[in-house]
Please model this.
Amino acid sequence: MPGEREMLSEAIARNCAVVLSLPSAGMLRHQKSRFLTEAADGIWLEAGAGEFALIDELIASQKPAGISFKSGHTKVVFASRILAVNREFRVNSEITLSAVAIAFPEKIKAIQRRNNYRVRVFPDCELAARVWRIAPRAHVGDRPMASQEVKSALRDLSVGGMGVTFQGENGNPPKITTEDRLRIELRHRETLLVIEGRMRSPTGPQQPGALFTGIQFKEMASDIEGRQKLTQLTRIIGEMQREEVRKARLGVA
Model:
């Protein structure tokens, strides 16, 4: 996968569609836009009509605007100052349009978009999950010690991973890191699956004594046993998805 800078350069060269987010009164005004060209004085984007007063304010205050665009299965986001506005930016010999120039960003963030459908976990869906920290060379099928279990609540599930909330003891943070190798036990009715995974880096606000994050499953399609687990997991998710649709039709929250 190319780096963030390469993604940005390629997007500019392709005149990629972007979303320009302008801060105003504690909120964001989102505009559909596109990259026009890269110049020595910055990156030029198409500017929508009706926001020139706000753009002039942002240029004067030097408050950054937000820019986001898609590159394959990745969403790229960054913040940058608006440097100038040109209401008659010349695209070619026949076309002129309104445009804004933004400074080259100092930081760019690429976010992998999910490819797998995630089903929510309802209290009555008959799915339970348990998570243990295990040693780097331990066999994932071996039963770990009780002290290695991390108290967790399952929020959603896909074939690639699951969303969880880890709970610590006595208000302390849960003892788990992104470096830990995890043994995940999923039980759905009569089916029991044991899967290996690792915790994703937590994002967003957290609560004391808890960790709101996700687990990425280890690749399961590399051998026969893994493919069997993947088939069982897909079947479980399919059943839960059908139940989710049924609840939605009945208006069950």
Observations:
- The chain has two domains: 4-112, 119-250.
- The radius of gyration is 24 Å.
- The chain has a mean pLDDT of 87.
- The longest helix spans residues 224-250.
